[in-house]
Amino acid sequence: MKTVLITGANKGIGFETAKQLAQMGYFVYLGSRDKTKGMDAINKLKDLGISNVALIELDVTNINSIKQARQELETKIETLDVLINNAGISGGQPQNFTVHNIDNLRKVFETNFFGVIQTTQQFLGLLEKSNEPVIVNVSSSLGSLTLHSSRQNPDFDIYDVYSSSKTALNAFTVMLANDLRNTNFKINSVCPGYTATDLNQFQGTQTVEQAANIVIKYVTLENIGTGKSFNKDGEVAW
Fold first, then answer.
1. pTM greater than 0.85
2. Rounded to 5 degrees, what angle do the CA atoms 70, 76, 79 make?
3. 121-128 own/partner pairs: CB under 8 Å, 24+ apart
């Protein structure tokens, strides 16, 4: 049975991805910053008859929390097959760089960028023991500089902070894939789409089920390469 760790998995896209992967036969560890909310998520899955899940208390902005989570996981498994870096925050509105508060900018990057890096670093050892290790960084098409430069979507202009954090995340995806290019790692950014979650006050146009399908596609698809960015339509320009 393959093993998966998903950060920010107690709700939204992370929770739905955990549910679907568990139903597909993976053993899924749900990373949750809040232990109580994490246990609520586990209990919801068990009420559905899903038992191949467990909670890992994990705050991606706290290196000690990440190390403790890694140490706990090492007592349970010898190999981690999939890491899904899903935890993220939007940063609220407005986000125009001409006026945005620098402290909030740092907060967004702490979760969406630095949190992903330090989580990945801590779990690389377990991933390296897998025959087919996969890392999916849950990103956004808003991180595409090509799309921003085209100015074809006016909505892009209202997400300066969130978008730039995802641009940085995409850069990490490419560079990490290059660092590990002589291994079996598949490391990609995946945009699940504009989904109705508390990240956007449930204004998204698609369901968490639809979003999770997109993430899972690039977890399980064999011939996708590494160091790329994808959404439901295929590869996204950087």
1. yes
2. 75
3. 122/66, 122/67, 122/69, 122/70, 123/5, 123/70, 123/73, 123/80, 123/83, 125/70, 126/70, 126/73, 126/74, 126/77, 126/78, 126/79, 126/80, 127/80, 127/81, 127/83, 127/185, 128/183
> Is 166 annotated as catalytic?
yes
Q: Active site residue: 26, 159, 162, 218, which one?
A: 162
CATH class of 3-235: alpha beta
Annotated domain spans of the chain = 3-235
pLDDT in tens, 201-219: 666 558 889 999 999 999 9
11, 166, 186, 228: which one is catalytic?
166
To the query of whether residue 46 is one of the catalytic residues in this protein, the response is no
